[in-house]
Amino acid sequence: RxxxxxxxxxxxxxxxxxxxxxxxxxxxxxxxxxxxxxEAYAGMFFEYCLEKMWGKKKIHYEMLLKxxxxxxxxxxxxxxxxxxxxxNMSVYIIERYTSDDLKDAKTKAKITRHFASRGFGFSEIxxxxxxxxxxxxxE
Length: 139
Hints:
By secondary structure, the protein is mainly alpha-helical. It has helices at 6-15, 20-32, 38-51, 56-65, 70-77, 82-96, 105-116, 122-138.
């Protein structure tokens, strides 16, 4: 299981005082043995983020913090499905806020804060709330 990027390992080794040459050799050796694979790590991290119901913005930000190269993060995020995320959000809203009035301004604000802190945009959040309201009214 690959649970570190080459950048994170480089940063950790630098903190410990190892010089750049040693760090480069270690990273090259571990990469050639398959212990470090930024692409595999990025894919696993992306799946983890989806399980946590994070939005595209937060996933991108967290990927960069983990040392995943920008181009690799963009490539992986290209498979992010906005409609699926909105659908999952609306299911969550229905399950979590069953006893609340979803048309109430305070409830909407609470839901908006919840999803905004997870990197979703306001249009996605509004769409998810609207779908949840429609689903409940259709029942």
